[in-house]
Design goal:
The protein has 133 residues and is of the alpha+beta class. The chain has 3 helices and 5 strands, in the order βαββββαα. It has one domain. The chain starts with 9 loop residues before the first strand and ends with a helix.
């Protein structure tokens, strides 16, 4: 089972990738195009030109993991992350961003709202007093 932690770095390759590549081909791309070490424990995400196929490459203690998913219909919501002309060959993602991509959630126009009124111990006691009155 492939699991990703919040402490692990995740990189999305910004150029579309030939999905015929396996662990060796993808690890060579990580070295040559992304300038990263594929043996460092980071996760590398590759997307096909049609944006309907994703591969994730991760090194663990004993070898490479290659996880892949091909959509039967639709595309992954990565259109604004791929193909930009930039000096950056890879974009760092959080685990939440990767999960959104894999689930088909397009957060391009999403707005983050701060959580007001933290529910710490003081807030819980104040709420209990308000309800009791």
């Amino acid at each position: 089972m492939l699991s990703l932690s919040h402490c692990q770095r995740i990189f999305l390759a910004r150029a579309p990738t030939d999905m015929r590549k396996g662990a060796n081909g993808l690890s060579a791309m990580v070295r040559e195009r992304l300038g990263k070490d594929p043996l460092g424990g980071d996760a590398f995400v590759f997307v096909s030109r049609r944006r309907n196929y994703v591969k994730i490459l991760v090194w663990d203690v004993s070898g490479f993991w290659v996880a892949s998913k091909r959509l039967e219909r639709g595309t992954y919501a990565v259109r604004d992350r791929l193909g930009r002309r930039s000096s950056c060959a890879a974009q760092q993602l959080s685990v939440a961003e990767l999960m959104n991509i894999l689930e088909g959630i397009d957060v391009h126009h999403a707005v983050y709202h701060r959580h007001e009124g933290s529910m710490g111990s003081g807030s819980v006691d104040a709420e209990r007093r308000r309800v009791a009155n």
